[in-house]
Design brief:
188 residues; alpha/beta; 5-stranded parallel sheet; 8 helices; 5 strands; elongated
């Protein structure tokens, strides 16, 4: 099995993700300590979050893992990444507490989701309100150049050398998704 590499050198910047990349690169000069990063499944949100987490010395947590104990244990971290806020079930009370702590301490907080906040299923109005205060950075579906470059990278990661015609063939026929590209290369 191939372990995904989330290093800065492994991230491929293209028009579909350059705005989100630029926002994360501007840290610590964000307009707000909290940022919401959104984009389709497999678009590179976790990769960008990992790059930022490394720079900010931030632990990365799945939002669904946050409970009262976890929130209390994170009281002294320098920054935090909450991944997949749209993937429940969520302990919304614990998340609300964590977001409030981050706001009070001006703690850098990066929240990711595949869906806009309004479609994340968050039922606690105050939590949703706090999250909406954060500026958003959007990763769009990959363009042709990025999709082809990712296909090549995925093949190279598996030490497979393929002809460019294979990459062209796949890029023209698969769903426009980096997650689907990874599935196809794994299957091949």
């Amino acid at each position: 099995p191939v372990e995904p590499r989330f290093g800065a050198d492994d991230f491929l910047v293209s028009p579909s993700n350059e705005e989100a990349y630029a926002v994360l690169e501007r840290w610590p000069d964000w307009p707000s300590p909290m940022l919401h990063l959104t984009g389709p499944r497999g678009s590179g949100k976790s990769h960008l979050a990992a790059i930022w987490a490394h720079r900010a010395d931030a632990p990365v947590l799945q939002a669904a893992q946050v409970n009262d104990e976890v929130a209390a244990a994170l009281d002294d971290v320098p920054a935090l990444v909450l991944e997949d806020i749209d993937q429940g079930p969520l302990a919304e009370g614990a998340l609300f507490h964590l977001v409030n702590i981050a706001r009070e301490r001006h703690l850098p907080l990066l929240v990711t989701s595949a869906e806009p906040l309004e479609r994340c299923g968050i039922r606690t109005p105050d939590l949703l309100s706090r999250l909406r205060l954060a500026p958003s950075a959007l990763i769009q579906a990959p363009d042709d150049a990025l999709l082809k470059a990712v296909l090549v990278k995925l093949f190279v990661d598996r030490q497979l050398v393929v002809d460019t015609s294979v990459v062209e063939f796949l890029a023209n026929r698969i769903e426009r998704s980096l997650a689907r590209a990874a599935e196809i290369v794994a299957a091949l």
